[in-house]
Amino acid sequence: MSRVTFDLDVMRSFVTGIELGSFAKAAERLGRSTSAVSAQLKKLEDQAGTPLLRKAGRGMALTEVGEVMLGYARRLLELNDEAASAVRGVQLEGRVRLGLQEDFGESVLPEVLGRFKRAHPRLRVEVHIARNAALMQSLEAGRLDLALAWETEARAPHAQHIQTLQMCWIGANAAQLPYVADEPIPLVVLDAPCLMRTAAINALDAAGLAWRIAFTSASLAGTWAAVKAGLGVSVRTPLGVPADLRMMDASVANLPTLPQLGLALYRSEEEPAPEVARLAELILERLEGE
């Protein structure tokens, strides 16, 4: 039986189409025609020897084999891109100062910084975990090169919008709600000032619902622990929510709908140094597909 050598260019079209939810959008992003991307998908299915996609309503969904292929395709592309970065940027040296919130510690840091360090072993990355306001102050003062932060200032310089996220109520995985009807909603929040704490209180006040601060913490880890213990509900975005907590359906839980929140990558300079630009590229690649 002859070995199959998959085309990485075809793999990239496949992965991009799945992540964007549309192969027409994938064609636009990759600078190809829709027919060219369709031909690539046909080639990939021919190489796999079985369909990778099936009809699902008006759209398409992955078959079981397609799900397996997607996992391998992502790994192959990641290794390819890492190798390309290492070859092109082997001489990069110095340091990059990155600021971000705890929300992204587990979901972004290990993968992005691991890839960055393997490709550029001579570079040193300094990571600063802080609240949004502190991150923006450090960036403006020149103490950070990059900051992954919420969009709280419409005119902040050198900002690149990544995505808009829906704030949501977070509760324990227990079937029962962590509060009793007709009693104040117990909130588990970070110490003030906190934009999500403010958003929760404003939403409850606007809905005419009574609330009380049941637990406050200086860290997100403390907040998650209190929610897991059933002390109350909290508010964050879907990014970084622990697997053993749940995003609550506001209508089912009799809670008000929360506002959306933009996420952006901020640079201290309009034209950053090559090492800063490369780390920014990796962060964007990691989060734009979320």
Which helices and strands occur, and which strands form pairs?
Layout: H1 8-20, H2 23-30, H3 34-48, E1 53-56, E2 59-62, H4 64-88, E3 94-100, H5 109-119, E4 123-129, H6 132-140, E5 146-150, E6 159-166, E7 168-172, E8 185-190, H7 195-206, E9 211-217, H8 220-228, E10 234-236, E11 245-247, E12 260-267, H9 274-288
Parallel strand pairs: 3-4, 3-5, 8-9
Antiparallel strand pairs: 1-2, 5-12, 6-12, 7-10, 7-11
Keywords: DNA-binding, Transcription, Transcription regulation
InterPro entries: LTTR (IPR050176), LysR_HTH_N (IPR000847), LysR_subst-bd (IPR005119), WH-like_DNA-bd_sf (IPR036388), WH_DNA-bd_sf (IPR036390)
Domain HTH lysR-type: 6-63
